[in-house]
Amino acid sequence: MAQGPTIFDRQLLRARRARAARLGPATFLVDRVAEDLAERLSAVLRKFELAADLGTPTGAVRRALAGKVGALVDVAADEEALPFREASLDLVVSALALQFVNDLPGALVQIRRALKPDGLFLAALVGGASLTELRQTFAAAEAEVEGGVSPRVAPFADLRDLGALLQRAGFALPVTDVDRLTVRYATPLALMHDLRRMGATNALLERHRVPLKRATLRRMMEIYAERFAGADGRVPATFEIVWLSGWAPHPSQQQPLAPGSAKTRLADALGANEISAGEKAER
After folding, report:
1. Residue 248 near residue 112 (C-beta atoms within 8 A)
2. Which ranges of the chain would DSSP assign to H, the alpha helix?
3. What is the pLDDT at residue 19?
4. Most buried of 48, 121, 201, 218 (most Cβ within 10 A)?
5. How far apart are the C-alpha atoms of 60 and 119, rounded to whole Å?
6. Which residues contact residue 34 at a Cβ distance below 8 angstroms, ignoring those fewer than 6 apart?
7. Edge-to-edge, what's the strand order for the sheet holding 50-54?
8. CA nearest 247: which of 161, 177, 169?
9. Cα–Cα dist 135/152, whole Å
10. Residue 50's pLDDT is what?
11. Residue 181's closest CA among 124, 138, 251, 248?
12. Pairing state of beta strands 115-126 and 235-247?
């Protein structure tokens, strides 16, 4: 598979995660995702003997899955070069890590190959609508103060793109869905402090290398408040969590019907009158 473009500075990302750990990390988002992941996994009525947690930036998934899987391996290696043998894992999970992978299609192929037949992949990524308020206000402030716009918030994939990538990677029964969380802050600066303590500040390779101007930051905070502040003066920040799941193929899995093999017409099942091509329904 051809290597895609390099979007994220992976070395910088690791350095910023290390800085976040030293500062005292803000873990509310990954903690919530880990709890949701454990709840989703509990709906699967089977035992996973050997599981891998891929790239989750804290120990939240290990804590949430304690006693729910056999052995859980925390993967500290690069998500783009997985150190697993083919068909060696029963389960691969990941919480808020894969959105920073440059070659996500390649990583998904590696994950599928590492799973045993009928093994499960379950992951949560930051979605494309995350931090929409911050994106909009930074763009407006930079255009007004500096006469141009630079990428301040990383781009993330949307739901349909990720569903297609699961299919391309060879997963069976792929499923994607989205969860949105709104967090309210006293000021936009408080949000930015939380992002720093998450290790989630701008790690784009093509990021603006010049320090942020105070005038731009001040105007961004004003625009954020003007556009989004509630009656109490607090400002919202949207976090979109996209969930992915898929299975390594196995003959026991449910298979789609071949075209033309249905024994019951759709019109009969819906209790509707069938209209042939070219005919118009009466109003």
Report:
1. yes
2. 10-23, 28-42, 60-64, 104-114, 132-145, 159-168, 188-197, 214-228, 266-270
3. 74
4. 121
5. 22
6. 56, 60, 61, 63, 64, 95
7. 71-75, 50-54, 89-95, 115-126, 235-247, 172-185
8. 169
9. 7
10. 96
11. 124
12. antiparallel
Rounded-to-integer distance, Cα 43 and Cα 156, Å: 28
Q: What is the pLDDT of residue 1?
A: 44
pTM above 0.85, yes or no: no
Domain ranges of the chain: 10-132+154-183+238-270
The structure tokens 């998500």 sit at: 79
pLDDT tens for 48-100 read 999 999 989 899 999 999 999 999 998 876 666 788 899 999 999 999 989 88
10-132+154-183+238-270 folds as Rossmann fold (3.40.50)
DSSP per-residue letters across 235-267:
EEEEEEEEEEEEE---TTS--PPPTT--SS-HH
Pick out the chain residues at pLDDT < 50: 1-2, 205, 266, 269, 274-283
Here the tokens at position 110 are: 């590696």
Distance CA 260, CA 131 (A): 45
The residues, ordered by sequence, that sit 6+ positions from 216 with a Cβ below 8 Å of its Cβ are 141, 142, 145, 146
Residues 57-69: tens digit of each pLDDT: 899 999 999 999 9
Contact 217, 191 (CB under 8 A): no
Structure token pair of residue 71? 């052995």
Quote the pLDDT of residue 159: 75
Half-sphere exposure of 92 (CA within 13 A, CB side): 33
In this structure, what token pair is assigned to residue 177?
A: 């869905």
